[in-house]
Specification:
The protein has about 325 residues and is an all-alpha fold. The protein has helices at about 5-20, 30-55, 60-75, 80-105, 110-135, 145-170, 170-180, 185-190, 195-220, 225-230, 230-245, 250-270, 275-290, 290-300, 315-325, and strands at about 140, 220-225. It is a multi-pass membrane protein.
Amino acid sequence: MNGRLALILAAALVALAALALAPFYLGPYQIGLLIGLTGYVTLSSAWALFSGPTRYVSLATVAFFGIGAYTVAALNEVLPYPLVLAAAAAIGLAVALVVGLSTLRLAGVYFVIFTFGLAELVRQLVTWYEVNVTGTLGRYIFMSFGPEQIYWQLLALMAITLFISWWIGRNRLGLALKVIGDDEVVAAHCGIYIARTKLALFALSAVIITLVGAIQAPRWTYVEPGIVFNPTLSFLTLIMALLGGANRLWGPALGAVPLFLLFEWLSARFPDHYSIILGLLFILIVFALPGGVAAFAERMFGQRKPTPQMPGAESALARDTAEARR
């Protein structure tokens, strides 16, 4: 481990410890904001885990989020909480594998439309089941822990998600994803198992998003399809990741924190025009910051260093050029 990496790791651990201690010094409203912030940082980081390098724009975030929330609502009275989370992760994984096997051969606008339709399909299926089978539309969730425990669970999941993103970006899997995102034909000629790689990352991203929904569900006490399958969540997650930079480790967090606070303010003061402002902001981000805030900052402050050359490479090139001239 080099010195720079050790310094970054130490700073991250200190920040994580400070965030973990925050509920001891904050009130209920501030803890609620922290829950929203950690939830959206985790969602946008999990979304960028798959959609960032592969450039597959998924709008199915709310489908997996709602599956996690509704699993807790359905099983919280019959299973211990850890088993409820395990069941939610297993259901999210199963749905992701089925969806991935059938749709990851699609690309571009077709994949976007399918994922949006998937979220609506899941919402309609849950609504139909609740109305026609159970005879009700919503469910109550009564758990024995408060908002502090929800926040600590989300904080741990956020740290795990960022670690997974960091780890993938530093090994061959991350390189394979970048090649797939650039050109799948080239990736296939390089011997990369395209379908298997995309499916693994899509399933991992979906399981994390499902767990975010499952952990946040007790916060609402009462859930129904209109709440947990709200498509606004998918668009917010997408905008946050794009604003910060979906191809950077800290990009989704850089986009999630300011946008969440801005949306909290806008939704409280302009509840009737909130969706219009959301659409305009999405258009502005796509045109003004196509690579996100992180990429813009790198260009402005020159953090991108030139690719290092092997020692002696320059002299070898000069020697080969001289021989060619002779």
